[in-house]
Design a protein that fits this description.
Blueprint (H helix, E strand, L loop, with lengths): L1 H4 L15 H6 L7 H7 L27 H26 L7
Length: 100
C-alpha cells in the first residue's frame, strides 16, 4: 500500500486503477467503504482535448461561374458514364436494345 501512495503525482495513469488487474487482485472486494472513498479521491484529468481553429476551417467554396469548356466536359463525362451503366445493366439482364 505504501508503494502505491509514493507514486509521482504528475504521472497520469493510462487506465483507471479499478481496471488494473494488479490493483483489483491486491484488494479484497469485501472491504467496506473502499469504493466510496476511492471515488471521492479521483483526480481530474491533467490534459483535455481542446479543438483548435485549424479544425474549424470552412470548406473552400466552388466558384459560381464554371467555365463553359469545363461544364461541357463534365456533361459529356456524365452522359458517357450513364450510357455505359445502362449498357452494362442491359447486358447483365440480357435485354435486347430494341425493347428499351
Amino acid at each position: 500500500e505504501a508503494s502505491r501512495s509514493s507514486r509521482s503525482p504528475s504521472r497520469a495513469p493510462s487506465v483507471s486503477h479499478s481496471q488494473c488487474p494488479s490493483v483489483s487482485r491486491s484488494r479484497p472486494a469485501s472491504l467496506p467503504g473502499v469504493s466510496p472513498s476511492r471515488s471521492t479521491t479521483r483526480r481530474t484529468p491533467e490534459a483535455t482535448f481542446t479543438p483548435t481553429a485549424a479544425g474549424l476551417r470552412q470548406e473552400q467554396s466552388i466558384p459560381e461561374e464554371i467555365p463553359a469548356t469545363m461544364k461541357a466536359w463534365m456533361e459529356e463525362a456524365i452522359r458517357k458514364g450513364i450510357a455505359s451503366g445502362v449498357q452494362q445493366c442491359m447486358a447483365a439482364r440480357q435485354v435486347p436494345v430494341s425493347e428499351c
